[in-house]
Structure formats: structure tokens, C-alpha cells
Design a protein that fits this description.
Elements: E1 29-33, H1 39-49, E2 54-59, H2 62-78, E3 84-89, H3 95-107, E4 114-117, H4 128-131, H5 133-156, E5 161-165, H6 174-193, E6 200-205, H7 212-216, H8 229-239, E7 251-253, H9 258-261, H10 264-272
């Protein structure tokens, strides 16, 4: 499938600068899952740069969450951002625990406007059958069920935007690609069922980022031509605005140029092809009313 796009970014560029008035997050509360440094941290950093009222970091590792929050507070103070940086310790794969998280937010009068689903289970570096159904299913719980849970809770409290982060297929860890594809399909289906003014949903591949997870897997600066983590962070901020409503239910790459994606020709293709930029099988249209066997 040819996209017809000519510009490919590796670093942030002016059109997605979060300090622009049109990308302002003033008055909004942003919840970001996944406490590790790298992509999630860069996303939070750029919502702070965009002047969000509150950024909530959610993760299960207390030390990692507290370290991330302390760094974000320092960065926010350095740019005189008004953002409140909040920490919440929560295992997003545990439905009972996440219920408590949302109940506490409600009790504190906190309404979430944007949820960034960045937490993920990478699974084992084994084939699906070698890993076994229990381990594979645990990845489904984290990478699919928890995202449905957060999307549902955001929708019920009239939140505005859900951003789903998908970092690509990892051949050595088949359960990751399988479950993240499933998570993407889930978000696409939810987007079909709700209007973007009810709940705007965009799935984003953040590019090749040397995150803590990548380092833990043995990669370093010389392994790849890495992308700047802030490219992903700023793309997510841009995708959370009403200006990106036309991407509702679609899958986009942070490396694409947002101004090129917003051209009339690209928008027309999105309007005319319901399967464009979606996970699925080429030449099988979801608009087909029947299948004859």
C-alpha cells in the first residue's frame, strides 16, 4: 500500500511544537500509563510543555514512578509550566486495582481528558506454543483487556481522547506482536462505535526509540538509527487535539509529517477508504455487507 508521503522525520519539527497555542492543553488532565523512561516519559514531558493542568503518571513500580515524576516536576519548573505532575501506583493489568484508581480520581474530583495507553507486556522470547497459553494470555490481559478497561472508563466519565501506543512487531517475542495487533484492532472497533467528539481515538507508532526497555534488551546507541523520543511525545500531543479528529480510528507513524498528512489529498483518501491506516487484510473491506461462500 503506497501512502504517497514524502517527508520522514527523525526529530521534532515546528508543526508539532507543543508550545504552539493551537496545541495548548491548558485546563486538561492527562493520564499516561507506563512508568519507564523513554516514550512514556517523553509523552508526559511534552504535555507539560503544552501547559496541561495536570499530568498523571501511572505505573506499578513505585521507585520508577517516583523517579519519573521528580524529573518531570524539575523539567516543568525549568520552563515555568503550570502543570501539576501526579503519581499513581497501579498495575493496569489488574481490573480491581484500576477500578480503585478511577474511583479515587473521581473522589478527588479529577476528570481525565486524555488517556495515553503506553503500558505494555512484552511477553517471553519464545514461540507462542513454547511460552504456553497462560503466559500468552497474560499479555492479552495487559495489552488488550486493560486498554478496553481504560477506554471504557474514560468514555463513561466523558473524557475526550484515547491514544494507543504500539511500538511494532518484535519477531523474537511473537506474543507481543499478536496482542498489540489485537489491541490496535480493539481501538479501531471502539472508534467505529463512537464519534470523535465523544471519544477521539488514535493509534500511534512512536518510531524507533532507545527506551529503557530497548536498553534492557541489549540495544544501545549504535544498534539502530534511533529517533528522538520527543518526536513521539510531540506527535501524541498533536494527535490529542481537535485538529487531529480526522485521524479518529486510524493508525499513524510518529515519523510522518503532520502537515503532509493533513493535506486535502490525504484527507480525501481517509474519507473514501474506511480501511486505510487500519490493521486488517488488504482487499477485504469492512464495508462489505455480505460474504458469499
Amino acid at each position: 500500500m503506497s501512502l504517497g508521503l514524502k517527508i520522514f522525520h527523525k526529530t521534532p519539527y515546528p508543526a508539532i511544537d507543543p508550545k504552539q497555542p493551537k496545541l495548548s492543553q491548558a485546563g486538561k488532565t492527562i493520564l499516561v500509563t507506563g512508568e519507564n523512561g523513554g516514550i512514556g516519559f517523553a509523552i508526559a514531558r511534552n504535555f507539560i510543555a503544552a501547559g496541561a493542568r495536570r499530568v498523571i503518571i501511572v505505573g506499578r513500580g513505585k521507585e520508577k514512578v517516583e523517579l519519573a515524576v521528580s524529573r518531570l516536576i524539575a523539567e516543568g519548573q525549568a520552563i515555568e509550566s503550570p502543570t501539576i505532575v501526579d503519581r499513581r501506583i497501579c498495575d493496569t493489568s489488574d481490573i480491581d486495582v484500576t477500578a480503585g484508581l478511577w474511583d479515587r480520581l473521581e473522589g478527588e474530583g479529577i476528570v481525565v481528558d486524555v488517556v495515553v495507553m503506553n503500558a505494555a507486556s512484552f511477553g517471553d522470547a519464545k514461540s507462542l506454543l513454547e511460552a504456553g497459553r497462560d503466559r500468552v494470555w497474560q499479555s492479552y490481559i495487559t495489552n488488550v483487556q486493560s486498554h478496553l478497561d481504560f477506554a471504557e472508563r474514560l468514555y463513561e466519565q466523558k473524557g475526550q481522547v484515547a491514544i494507543y501506543i504500539w511500538t511494532g512487531v518484535t519477531p523474537q517475542i511473537p506474543s507481543y506482536g499478536l496482542t498489540k495487533n489485537s489491541g490496535t484492532a480493539l481501538m479501531q472497533q471502539i472508534a467505529k462505535d463512537v464519534r470523535p467528539d465523544e471519544l477521539q481515538i488514535v493509534s500511534i507508532h512512536p518510531g524507533s526509540v532507545l527506551s529503557d526497555t530497548a536498553r534492557a534488551a541489549g540495544l544501545d546507541e549504535s544498534s539502530l538509527s534511533w529517533d528522538d523520543e520527543n518526536l513521539a511525545g510531540q506527535t501524541v500531543v498533536s494527535a490529542s487535539t481537535p485538529e487531529a479528529e480526522f485521524l479518529h480510528g486510524r493508525f499513524v507513524l510518529a515519523n510522518w509529517d503532520i502537515e503532509e498528512v493533513m493535506t486535502d489529498s490525504f484527507r480525501v483518501r481517509l474519507m473514501n477508504d474506511p480501511n486505510f491506516l487500519k490493521v486488517g487484510v488488504d482487499d477485504l473491506s469492512e464495508s462489505m455487507t455480505s460474504l458469499q461462500v
